[in-house]
Amino acid sequence: MKSFTKELTLEVPERVGFVHLTPEVERAVRDSGVQEGLCLVNAMHITASVFINDDESGLLQDYRRWLEHLAPHDPARYLHNRTGEDNGDAHHKRQIMGREVVVAITEGRLHFGPWERIFYGEFDGRRKKRVLIKIIGE
Asked: Distance between CA 60 and CA 3 in Å, rounded?
């Protein structure tokens, strides 16, 4: 069995933003040489997310609005912020959107549904953060 690891470093200039990761993940799958296996992609920070959905700008704007409604950026609202942080909302947004995705690899390619794409969600940006790509298989 082969194993391949790659880390991406991202820096989203805004507090909240989304980055389309599919091309980078596809490149990693090609570089791995794995033809049949699994690809894990996960955010390595507790205020960021990796998720799969449609690459449609209106949907991403809807996510921003929906997440802000569910967990508004209001530092006084969160007990977590008593530690001196101001990102209690970002922890909640990450919890909703999830930590990672796993995608099957078939014939050397990500085995997606028709509109599925991989995204990084940043909820406490403006600094460098990492995303792990781990591929295993034959």
From this structure: 32
Task: Give the residue numbers spanning the domain of 122.
Answer: 2-137
What's the CATH code of the domain at 23?
A: 2.60.120.460
Contact 2, 138 (CB under 8 A): yes
pLDDT in tens, 37-57: 999 999 999 999 999 999 999
* List of residues 6+ apart from 24 with CB closer than 8 A: 8, 133
**Based on the structure, what is the number of domains in the chain?**
1
Number of continuous H segments (helices) and E segments (strands) in the chain: 3, 8
CA distance 100 to 120: 9
Give pLDDT tens digits for 112-133: 999 999 999 999 999 999 999 9
